[in-house]
Amino acid sequence: MKPVAGVDIGGTTTKLALIDSGGEVEGLRSIPTESATAGEFVERLRCAVQEAAWRVDRVGVAVAGFVNAAHDRLEYNPNLPWLQHYPLRDALEQRLGLPVVLEVDSNAAALAEWRFGAGRGSDRFLCLTAGTGLGGGMMVDGKILRYAYECLGDVGHVIVEPGGPRCTCGGLGCAEAMVGAEAVTTRFRKAGGSAEDLRKVIEQARAGDGRAMRAIEDAGRWLGLALATLGNILFPDRIAIAGGLSEAGELLLEPCRRTFRENASPFASARARVVRAELGWRATLVGAGACAESCP
Fold it and tell me: Is the N end or the C end of the chain the one with fewer CB atoms within 10 Å?
């Protein structure tokens, strides 16, 4: 099967690469996501794809947020308001001259991890992606679970800190507001640390900086609370944590697992294993490619 082009439209950066049928990534490129208009973004993405000169016959695009039933536009994402309701799939098809498959990024990541990574062999696989925001997708018996707006719903907005910080969705104390990249970085800075982004916080935590370690541990605790709620509702047999925050490894996962076990029902926690996603930053890209590959 010919390789496909995979595109991952995130809240901050859009990545694109060539994805083969084995889930391998080649020729990674990136462009800033933020744009004055949706049309400007599509043009910038078209230039990036065409400059890569990949020989592909289709493109898979994963976008953060909800998509509509026709899978041709972003329905809702408070972090990308300028892209909402824009005919993204059709605009890309017209400018690239190729078929385009549009999917929710959390679904793409879950599919990729189930097929190529930490979800292999799982019957009920939940994958949470913690980066700019917090999203989640689920595979049940090999199929994407589509509960609302073509995805699992906004699972990153379960409340873990009642009366907590205002989230971009408008709620208070959402998991995303507590474990998103900006939230973790801000807590570290308030504790007296210095870091421009989440990656630097993780680097300092690995180096033994107590303030950075506490910022990551707090994120793990709140993430574990979110998992306790989701585990009691969805009953996954495996839960994988993906995204930039997962790069903290056991500094994040140990408090996450502990809090999950302490707060979920014994029935739910005994049946679920919490692991780090295996594909890392590649998951959504690979999943975008897998979605495109599976369509006729």
Answer: C
- Domains of the chain plus CATH, in order, are 4-107+283-294 (3.30.420.40), 121-278 (3.30.420.40)
* Per-residue pLDDT tens digits for 108-154: 999 999 999 999 999 999 999 998 889 999 999 999 999 999 999 99
Question: Which three-class secondary structure state does DSSP give residue 14?
Answer: strand
**Strands 59-63 and 100-104, sheet pairing:** parallel
Which helix (H) or strand (E) segment holds residue 274: the answer is strand 273-276
Q: Are strands 66-67 and 134-140 parallel, antiparallel or unpaired?
A: unpaired
Burial class (CB in 10 A: 0-12, 13-18, 19+), 147: exposed
Of 135, 122, 162, nearest to 8 (Cα)?
A: 135
Q: Within the chain, what is the greatest distance between any pair of CA atoms?
A: 54
* Contact present, 118 and 240 (Cβ < 8 Å): yes
Q: Is the whole model's pTM more than 0.85, yes or no?
A: yes
Decide if 56 contacts 97 (C-beta within 8 A): no
| Strands ordered across the beta sheet of 100-104 | 25-32, 13-19, 4-9, 59-63, 100-104
